[in-house]
């Protein structure tokens, strides 16, 4: 059986589902009794630090979770495309604008792919970027504060999935639409999809000085679905690769429509060439509404601006900028090895892994080895760009990462395993089961020229019997493997915040020295800051009242407030006067229809309270801050209107 047909694959999927996703069908096999050396390898003694940070996407929770590796300990959940009552993110007046979009306030999303900023092809630890699939956005998290500091909406897109991967000097963070849609959006028959719907690939520039994002240009591609993407690196720096499916341009993806073509494509985009074209005045401005939200560290306040137009480029305008590489059976992952030579396309309905060669691609372009241009874009001859094939390594290949030592690791969703194979020889070296149905995997630095090939983290879709039951839904999970030897060794299962799609890992030593300890009070430019107790006040403006308040161990100032009436809208602006590391205070107000605030040293945050009844109402500090934490309280007197 040289090639498994799709039918065989699908029935294999059915069979595996019946036996609980365990490919071997061995219900009792839990990955073997782990050796004591496995325990030692993940044991981080009390007070010791982990060697790596892992930033694991929260999928449909819209968050980004921060873990230590090898321990698997959870340190923080960073709210990104979500409201988080713990940190008041999306609840306080300062951060609400971060969740603004052209559709209004959208406090949820589906975040899949974090990627860490790079300089000269290596992780630099300044930022993590992550995509929002549902209402297309890209967020930037500042790794000095571990807070989301910028969110830009991506116009002309829908299902922002092949995102957010960065080029090797973080020139761009790139976003590709999953769904093709009418561009510009308009009322039209769905049946006229073909030729009319477009797939926008967005190149979002990142300012090298301040990190500011901007949609530099959008490439309006044929109406395919765009799945994953990866930048070229090293020799292929300047190119970006996108997997596609539904190259039939069908409006319904019932199998009969979308999987007719034996091969879909990896689209290779020479972004340097397009950049040059637009820098010389190429492309055209098109009306588009999209939000650009920026959080300022000094005012501690976000502003949301609505942008009105975007620069678009049609591939036909820039000959030689876009090519299509035929790739079997609905490629999902699209991964470029650390040298930039190999582009791995994981056809999820294919039994084999197809690897393209960048060198051969350039050669095929030069010698015009094309098989037509059905979409107005040259289609390169498959055999002319093929570097090699990994034959039948498993079922349902999804994603590949690299250890920097010439090995690649690919996940197989259907057969629930990670397979290690050699670049260049295409030989399978090792395989290990995952529990179960693995999606992505991650090697710290695996998206760069310099991977730290010590561990691979597999992120699983299904856990079934691996953990204590918690009702119909069991925890999501990740599994850590040691990859320092010839054979992989499973070290650890650990539960994760749902749903872990992908992760980005980095040595902790790159991040730790720059991690912010406090915000300096003298740099606090918040409009309503009170920088000392002497500056506190209550200011009435009609029915609107602004309370300028401070907090420090262990009291609020003022802590007794009178003169408030039913029907007032009371803004509490509270400044944490502490200038010590790890001394936030919280505050909450009885009946306030918001979350508490958790305010970092030197920071100011605000919430609104609209008292409904006369009385004397308490507020208190919510974060256990000192021996007198329980004394940290106050009263507001509310009189009839
Ligand atoms: S996708 Cu999740 S397994 Cu959204 Cu990166 Cu492939
Ligand atoms: Cu301040 Cu508890």
Secondary-structure topology with pairs:
Elements (H helix, E strand, L loop, with lengths): L5 H13 L17 H7 L9 E6 L5 E7 L4 E6 L20 E2 L2 E2 L9 E5 L2 E11 L4 E6 L4 E7 L11 E2 L5 E5 L4 E2 L14 E10 L6 E9 L3 E7 L7 E7 L9 H4 L4 E8 H9 L4 E13 L4 E13 L8 E7 L2 E6 L5 E6 L5 E5 H9 L15 H4 E5 L6 E6 L4 E6 L4 E6 L5 E6 L4 E5 L12 E6 L15 E7 L6 E8 L6 E5 H4 L25 E5 L2 E9 L2 E3 L2 E6 L3 E8 L8 E5 L7 E3 L4 E6 L5 E6 L12 E7 L2
Parallel strand pairs: 14-19, 35-38, 37-43
Antiparallel strand pairs: 1-2, 1-33, 2-3, 4-5, 6-7, 7-8, 8-9, 9-18, 10-11, 11-13, 12-13, 13-14, 15-16, 16-17, 17-20, 18-19, 21-22, 22-23, 23-24, 25-26, 26-27, 27-28, 29-30, 30-31, 31-32, 34-35, 35-36, 38-41, 39-40, 39-42, 42-43
Can you tell me about this structure?
The protein is mainly β and 641 residues long. It is globular, with a radius of gyration of 26 Å. Strands 6, 7, 8, 9, 10, 11, 12, 13, 14, 18 and 19 form an eleven-stranded mixed beta sheet that branches. Strands 34, 35, 36, 38 and 41 form a five-stranded mixed beta sheet that branches. A five-stranded mixed beta sheet has the order 37-43-42-39-40, with no helix packed on it. The chain has two domains: 6-24 and 35-514, Methylamine Dehydrogenase, Chain H (7 Propeller); 521-639, Immunoglobulin-like, CATH 2.60.40.420. The model is unreliable at 1-28 (pLDDT under 50). [4Cu:2S] cluster binds next to β25 and β29. One of its GO terms (molecular function) is copper ion binding. Residues 1-20 form the signal peptide.
């Amino acid at each position: 059986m040289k090639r498994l047909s799709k039918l065989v694959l699908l029935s294999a999927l059915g069979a595996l589902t019946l036996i609980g996703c365990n490919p071997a069908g061995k219900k009792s096999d839990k990955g073997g009794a782990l050796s004591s050396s496995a325990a030692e390898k993940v044991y981080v003694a009390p007070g010791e630090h982990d060697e790596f940070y892992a930033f694991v996407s929260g999928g449909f929770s819209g968050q980004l979770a921060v873990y230590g590796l090898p321990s698997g300990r959870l340190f923080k959940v960073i709210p990104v495309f979500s409201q988080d009552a713990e940190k008041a993110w999306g609840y306080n007046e300062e951060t609400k604008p971060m969740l603004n979009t052209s559709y209004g306030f959208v406090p949820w999303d589906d975040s899949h792919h974090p990627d860490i900023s790079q300089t000269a092809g290596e992780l630099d630890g300044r930022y993590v970027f992550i995509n929002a699939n549902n209402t297309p956005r890209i967020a930037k998290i500042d790794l000095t504060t571990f807070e989301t500091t910028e969110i830009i909406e991506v116009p002309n897109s829908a299902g922002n999935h092949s995102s957010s991967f960065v080029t090797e000097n973080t020139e761009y963070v790139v976003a590709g639409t999953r769904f093709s849609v009418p561009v510009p959006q308009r009322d039209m028959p769905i049946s006229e999809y073909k030729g009319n719907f477009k797939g926008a690939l967005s190149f979002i520039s990142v300012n090298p000085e301040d990190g500011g994002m901007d949609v530099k240009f959008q490439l309006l591609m044929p109406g395919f679905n765009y799945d994953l993407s990866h930048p070229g690196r090293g020799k292929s720096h300047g190119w970006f690769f996108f997997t596609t499916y539904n190259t039939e341009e069908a409006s319904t993806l019932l199998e009969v429509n979308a999987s007719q073509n034996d091969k879909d494509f990896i689209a290779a985009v020479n972004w340097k060439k397009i950049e040059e074209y637009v820098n010389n005045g190429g492309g055209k401005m098109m009306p588009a509404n999209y939000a650009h939200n920026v959080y300022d560290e000094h005012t501690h306040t976000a502003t949301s601006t609505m942008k009105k137009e975007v620069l678009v480029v049609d591939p036909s305008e820039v000959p030689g900028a876009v090519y299509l590489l035929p790739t079997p059976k609905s490629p999902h992952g699209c991964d470029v090895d650390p040298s930039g030579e190999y582009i791995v396309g994981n056809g999820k309905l294919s039994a084999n892994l197809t690897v393209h060669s960048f060198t051969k691609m350039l050669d095929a372009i030069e010698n015009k080895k094309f098989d037509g241009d059905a979409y107005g874009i040259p289609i390169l001859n498959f055999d002319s760009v093929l570097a090699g094939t990994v034959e039948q390594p498993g079922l349902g290949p999804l994603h590949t990462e690299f250890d920097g030592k010439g090995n690649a690791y690919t996940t197989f969703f259907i057969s629930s395993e990670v397979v290690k194979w050699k670049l260049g020889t295409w030989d399978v070296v090792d395989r290990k089961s995952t529990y179960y149905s693995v999606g992505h995997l991650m090697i710290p630095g695996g998206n760069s020229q310099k991977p730290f090939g010590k561990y691979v983290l597999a992120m699983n879709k299904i856990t079934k019997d691996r953990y204590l039951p918690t009702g119909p839904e069991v925890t999501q999970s990740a599994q850590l493997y040691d990859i320092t030897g010839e054979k992989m060794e499973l070290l650890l299962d650990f539960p994760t915040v749902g749903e872990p799609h992908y992760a980005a890992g980095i040595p902790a030593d790159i991040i730790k020295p720059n991690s912010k300890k406090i915000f300096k009070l003298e740099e606090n430019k918040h409009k309503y800051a009170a920088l000392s107790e002497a500056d506190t006040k209550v200011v009435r403006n009609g029915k609107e009242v602004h309370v300028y308040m401070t907090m420090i161990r262990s009291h609020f100032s003022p802590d007794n407030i009178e003169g408030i009436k039913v029907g007032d809208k009371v803004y509490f602006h509270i400044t944490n006067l502490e200038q010590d590391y790890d001394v936030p205070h919280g505050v909450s107000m009885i009946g306030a229809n918001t979350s508490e605030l958790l305010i970092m040293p030197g920071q100011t945050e605000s919430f609104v309270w609209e008292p409904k009844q006369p009385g004397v109402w308490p507020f208190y500090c919510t974060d256990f801050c000192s021996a007198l934490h329980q004394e940290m309280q106050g009263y507001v007197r509310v009189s009839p209107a």
